[in-house]
Design a protein that fits this description.
With 60 residues, the chain is mainly alpha-helical. It has three helices and no strands. The N and C termini lie far apart (72 Å).
Length: 60
């Protein structure tokens, strides 16, 4: 049965570093798995926005 070099590499990497998958899960939790947004807080933040000029570098 054929097995690509990449598949062999990944299998060997997992054997050499058994904690790798747990580290990946922790990294994902930091950057991607977020709490649901609190809609009240979002609306308060939106209400506090200051309108921006169409071109901020324009001098009048």
């Amino acid at each position: 049965m054929y097995e690509s070099e990449i598949t062999k590499f990944i299998r060997e990497l997992k054997i050499a570093r058994p904690q790798l998958e747990e580290e990946q899960r922790k990294g994902r939790a930091i950057w991607w798995d977020k709490k649901p947004l609190d809609m009240k807080e979002v609306s308060e933040q939106d209400a506090g926005r200051v309108p921006q000029q169409p071109y901020p570098y324009a001098t009048k």
